[in-house]
Amino acid sequence: MKVLVLNCGSSSLKYQLFDMENEHVLAKGLVERIGLPGAVLTHRPGSEKYVIETEIPNHQKAIELVLQALVSNKHGVLKSLDEISAVGHRVVHGGEDFSGSVLITDAVIDALRRNIELAPLHNPPNIMGIEACQNLMPNVPQAGVFDTAFHQTMPPQAYLYGIPYEYYQKYKIRKYGFHGTSHKYVSQRAAAMLKRPIEEVKIITCHLGNGASIAAVDRGKSIDTSMGFTPLEGLMMGTRSGDLDPAIVSFLMEKEKWTTEETSNFLNKRCGVLGLSGVSSDFRDIENAADQGHERAQLALERFAYMVKKYIGSYAAVLNGVDAIVFTAGLGENSALMRVKICEGLDYLGVKLDLDKNYTRGIEADVSADDAKTRVFVIPTNEELMIARDTYEICRDLK
Which biological pathway (predicted)? Predict the structure, then answer.
């Protein structure tokens, strides 16, 4: 069974085609600048790369080009589109409607539309991708895999805010959490590396990249996570402020005479390590500047590590212990320095790094000292494979 995985952004589309018999990636690629001048499709069947530049006015045209590339005589990997048995979509926000991945139906699409106000930038292109596939492949079943679904197991004391309950009932204002597919994948891999059933272990997963979040995973279920009603809450990130005193928002709006839109843009795009360091939103640039003695870059790194450490400590308390801490995503997988900064002072949890083992990038590894009580793992995330697996389970008996 072959599963096509799609991740539709507002002006981009990432895809991977899996053969689920061995979970092998047959092809993958990226469509950029949808609806803009200079649109391009980069298609990779194996190690080769093919670049197609053409007008791509919308997501349906983008998906049409992807399907043509997959069956192309020159660089295709399929004889016919009939070989695609199912399509899996990454969907950012399922609200409270979905606690797991689902088969796409008209009712599901209606629910996604209702949740647009919770993810106005992400859900519309996700819906466009689903509808484009319905038009182009009307007989192929589709599944929706939600960033928020994994965190729907959080208890009310974890997801409710200290505001009148009526606003939760009226507007569904609560913590939702994001990066759920990543947290789910790496927690399952961590349990496998511990050689224990996931139902027996307590894991803290750290998805650290330009967007960053941490999750407390108790026996396979998320019981808390750092992102909240939106991805703005939690850790300071590349350009997002993360946790701050809410009064700062109204204070700045009054002082700077900002509109709500300007304030949202400030908190989401001008803060984080970019704002604190004044260097970049890219942690690689900040690490390089810090190495050259840039004080604000050093401060930004210390602040970020400090926040991650605080969340690890609080989640260890919530879990009543921890068996493993996982680092994943761009920064978590590739920065030995950041892992050292975060793990310093966590010896009370049984954390002890092997500095030689820790000097690794982008590969699955146990970087703990042999005598460490709590294991520290580096696990490259694979959200596309997680989406393909969920889609396979949902759709395998339908066609």
Answer: Metabolic intermediate biosynthesis; acetyl-CoA biosynthesis; acetyl-CoA from acetate: step 1/2
Spatial separation of the C-alpha atoms in residues 325 and 312, rounded to whole Å: 8
Taking the C-alpha atoms of residue 180 and residue 205, their distance in angstroms, rounded to an integer, is 10
Instruction: Enumerate long-range contacts of 7-12, CB under 8 Å, 24 or more apart.
Output: 7/89, 7/90, 7/384, 8/59, 8/89, 8/90, 8/125, 8/126, 8/128, 8/129, 9/122, 9/125, 10/34, 10/121, 10/122, 10/124, 10/125, 11/35, 11/36
CB atoms near residue 2 (< 10 Å): 19
Here the tokens at position 241 are 């402020």
Annotated binding site for ATP: 14, 207-211, 282-284, 330-334
Give the mean model confidence (pLDDT) for residues 360-380: 95
Q: In the structure encoding, which two tokens stand for residue 286, read together?
A: 């900040």
Q: Say if 292 falls within a structural domain.
A: yes
Residues shown for the chain: 399
What are the binding residues for substrate? 90
pTM of the model: 0.91
CATH number at residue 13: 3.30.420.40
Residue 365 is classified by DSSP as E
Check if 147 is active-site: yes
Average pLDDT over residues 345-358: 96
Are residue 134 and residue 209 in the same domain, yes or no? Answer: no
Segment 315-324, tens digit of pLDDT: 999 999 999 9
Rg (CA), the chain: 22
- 97, 147, 218, 390: the active-site residue: 147
Looking only at the bridges linking them, the beta strands covering 84-91 and 142-146 are: parallel
Rounded Cα gap, residues 224 and 158, in angstroms: 6
What residue numbers bound the domain in which 355 lies? 196-383
What's the average model confidence in pLDDT over 293-305? 96
Question: 74 with 203, same domain?
Answer: no
